[in-house]
Amino acid sequence: MAVIGVGIDVCDLARFAASLERTPGLRERLFTPAEATRPPASLAARFAAKEALAKALGAPGNLAWHDAEVFSEPSGRPRLELRGTVAARAAELGAVHVHVSLSHDAGIASAVVVLES
């Protein structure tokens, strides 16, 4: 296995929560129905994960937000599920393993994504 992409992103929690309040359709536009039920800090971390994933994929402009979904395994470990436009780009690059780490503390949410062949 070789690393073929790495992405990182951070998101200010207060600013993100204010954006969700100010723009009613934002939650539905960015997140799948399963993700959208989570609290703002968790959504900010998931948004950072989607941004980090886009960076790891080379930031093509045709990726759909709902084509990447962050799940929590029973252990609490986050996992990214790729489909549609995002899965197609990952396949184009030869990515078969996706690793994601999320955190939120001190008013900041962060995420790192590593793609491996």
Descriptive keywords:
alpha+beta; globular
Q: Which SSEs are present, and which pair or pack?
A:
Elements: E1 3-12, H1 13-22, H2 26-30, H3 33-36, H4 40-56, E2 68-72, E3 78-82, H5 84-93, E4 97-105, E5 108-116
What's the end-to-end separation, in Å?
A: 5 Å
Class per helix and strand makeup: alpha+beta
Global morphology: globular
Low-confidence parts, pLDDT < 50 over ≥5 residues? none
Rounded mean pLDDT score:
97
Number of helical elements: 5
* Percent of sequence in beta strands: 25-35%
Number of strands: 5
Q: Helicity level, as a percent range? A: 25-40%
The helix/strand series, from N terminus to C terminus, equals: EHHHHEEHEE
Rg calculated over all Cα atoms: 14 Å
Strand order of the largest sheet: 1-5-4
The main sheet comes to:
3 strands, antiparallel
